[in-house]
Amino acid sequence: MDNTCNIIGLIDRHAISEGVTETPIEGLQLFRQSHLVERLPGVYDPSLCVIVQGRKRAYLDGKTHIYDREQYLCCTLPIPAEAEVIEASPEKPLLGLLLSIETQAMFETVLEMAALDRGSASQAEVVPGLTVAKWDENFTTELQRLLELLNDPVALDILGSSRLRELMFAVLRGEAGGAFFHAFGAGMQQISRALTFLQANLHEAISIDELAKEAGMSRAVFHRKFKEVTTYSPIQFIKLHRLNEASRLIVSGSTVGDAAYRVGYSSQSQFSRDFRRYFGKSPRQWGLEQQSEL
User: Fold this and answer.
1) What's the rounded mean pLDDT across residues 84-94?
2) What is the CATH T-level fold of the domain 186-292, as seen in this structure?
3) CA-CA distance, 65 to 73, in Å (whole number)?
4) Which CATH class is domain 2-183?
5) Residue 135's closest CA among 107, 178, 175?
6) 2, 48, 101, 193: which is deepest, by most CB within 10 A?
């Protein structure tokens, strides 16, 4: 596809260094990775992750998702998952982009589409917060048009918001539409409030009753709805979120004890046991290995 080749060229030109490159387009980051990366846990924020060269694999609740030039990854909620780079080299690096769906332009597009196209919205299936969708012609065209703005600052100022909306419209009309309509429905907005509360109070002792109250649901309904859309029970989700945040703090230079305290653990030994169970290594060993690769 000529459009895909053009997209590869645009990202290759603007992703100027290894790792993540920020762009002037709201919510858009480009990335370049020249070597394979082993399977690692992390928290995916609500976003689209598009690979145009190379390949990645994500894991959630026993399911595997491959994303590359044939399908892109859609995350509609903050989800603890694992991922690895399975195709990349210095000669042909992994190239891609991460686009937040939490910007005003993206959010408004979903809500307006749901209101105007009630047929599509009402048929939206319940989908876990992490899924993949096939590239189609409309998605490819709108993605190229958005990235072309990186070559023209004047056009970017005038057209940036509208191009974001056009890309999101293409996503909603494609295979990922159901996932996003479901994510922005009334019930999911309640779960999102609970997740926002959790992220803001990760260092505190948070009970399921508190999260259910924040969502405006009974404990039983909240537990069922939460697992339905995240694939995790609330307790599992809280633990994984804390461990992922602790791993980020450790790589950034925090001591094991400080990282444990900052994510709500009162016992460092319990934290170390949970960390080893999840990451397969002690916090100190894992941190040293990750820092050596930076």
Assistant:
1) 96
2) Arc Repressor Mutant, subunit A (1.10.10)
3) 8
4) mainly beta
5) 175
6) 48
